C-alpha cells in the first residue's frame, strides 16, 4: 500500500524535473539569441533618461492650449519654464569590474525567456494536462498563444507607458544642487523586476480561466473577495519605495483581478446535469 501511494508522487516529481530541464535549455538558447540585441534593449530602456518622453509632448500640448485660452494663469505659474526644459544626455554609471557584463547577461536572460515563452507555457500545459479532460487538452494552442501574448502585452505596457512615468518623476527632483547619478545595476535591476511583475500581472486572467475550468474558483468566490484583492495589491506594491511606483503597480494589478472575475464568470466549469 505504501508503494502505491509513493509511486504517483515520485512520477510527478520525475515529470516536473523533465519539464524544468526543457525550460532551462530553452531559456539558455533564447539567451544566446537575445545576446545579439541586448545592447539595443539597454539603449531603449535608457531613453527616458534624456527627459524627452511622451509625457513631455502631452505637457507641451496642454500648456500650449492653456497659454492660448488662459494667458494670465500661464504667466502667473511660469509654465513657459516647464515647456522650455531642454533635453539632457544622462549616462548610466558603474563602479564594479564586469558590472556591465553581468547586466548584459541579465537583460539577455529576460529577453531570451520572453522569446521562448511558448515553449515554457507548453511545458506547463504538458505538466497539468493529465488533470484535464480530452476536450480541454485540445486547448493547448489557444492557451500557449494567449498566455505568451498576455505576458508580452504586460511587459510592453510597462516599458512604453509606465517606465517613462517613473523615470520622469525621478528626474523631476533634479535641481541646482541635486543631480541624478544612476548606477547601471540599480537602474536595470529595478526595470527588469518591474517587467516581470507586469508580465505576471497580465497573466492573472489566464490563471483565473484555468482555475475556473478546473472548478477551483468561480465568479462568486472572486467577486466577494475584492477587498482582499485590493489589500493584496497594496501590499505587493508597498515593497517599492516611492508612491508613484506603488500606484502604477497597484492599479493594473487590481484591474487584472477585476478582469479575472469576469473571465471566471464566462469560462467557469458548467455543473453537470443530474
Automatic annotation (TrEMBL):
Record flagged with keyword Hydrolase: no
Swiss-Prot/TrEMBL GO biological process terms: intracellular protein transmembrane transport; protein transport by the Tat complex
Keywords, alphabetical: Cell membrane, Membrane, Protein transport, Translocation, Transmembrane, Transmembrane helix, Transport
GO cellular component, one term: TAT protein transport complex
Localization per Swiss-Prot or TrEMBL: Cell membrane; Membrane
Signal peptide boundaries: none
Keyword Transport: yes
Matches recorded under InterPro entries: TatC
Alphabetized NCBIfam families for the sequence: tatC
Assembly information from the UniProt record: Forms a complex with TatA.
Record-given protein name: Sec-independent protein translocase protein TatC
Source organism per UniProt: Geomesophilobacter sediminis
Encoding gene (name): tatC
Amino acid at each position: 500500500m505504501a508503494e502505491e501511494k509513493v509511486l504517483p508522487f515520485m512520477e510527478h516529481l520525475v515529470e516536473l524535473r523533465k519539464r524544468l530541464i526543457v525550460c532551462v535549455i530553452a531559456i539558455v538558447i533564447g539567451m544566446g539569441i537575445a545576446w545579439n540585441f541586448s545592447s539595443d534593449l539597454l539603449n531603449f530602456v535608457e531613453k527616458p533618461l534624456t527627459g524627452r518622453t511622451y509625457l513631455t509632448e502631452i505637457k507641451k500640448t496642454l500648456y500650449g492650449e492653456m497659454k492660448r485660452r488662459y494667458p494670465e494663469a500661464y504667466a502667473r505659474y511660469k509654465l513657459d519654464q516647464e515647456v522650455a526644459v531642454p533635453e539632457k544626455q544622462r549616462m548610466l554609471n558603474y563602479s564594479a569590474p564586469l558590472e556591465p557584463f553581468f547586466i548584459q547577461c541579465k537583460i539577455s536572460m529576460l529577453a531570451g525567456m520572453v522569446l521562448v515563452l511558448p515553449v515554457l507555457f507548453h511545458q506547463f500545459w504538458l505538466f497539468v494536462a493529465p488533470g484535464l479532460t480530452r476536450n480541454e487538452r485540445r486547448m493547448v494552442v489557444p492557451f500557449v498563444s494567449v498566455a505568451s501574448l498576455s505576458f508580452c502585452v504586460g511587459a510592453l505596457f510597462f516599458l512604453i507607458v509606465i517606465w517613462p512615468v517613473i523615470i520622469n518623476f525621478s528626474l523631476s527632483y533634479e535641481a541646482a544642487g541635486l543631480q541624478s547619478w544612476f548606477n547601471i545595476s540599480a537602474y536595470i535591476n529595478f526595470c527588469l523586476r518591474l517587467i516581470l511583475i507586469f508580465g505576471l500581472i497580465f497573466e492573472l486572467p489566464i490563471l483565473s480561466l484555468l482555475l475556473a475550468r478546473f472548478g477551483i474558483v468561480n465568479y462568486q468566490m472572486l467577486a466577494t473577495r475584492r477587498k482582499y484583492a485590493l489589500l493584496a495589491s497594496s501590499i505587493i506594491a508597498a515593497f517599492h519605495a516611492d508612491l508613484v511606483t506603488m500606484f502604477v503597480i497597484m492599479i493594473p494589478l487590481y484591474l487584472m483581478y477585476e478582469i479575472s472575475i469576469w473571465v471566471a464568470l464566462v469560462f467557469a466549469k458548467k455543473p453537470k446535469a443530474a
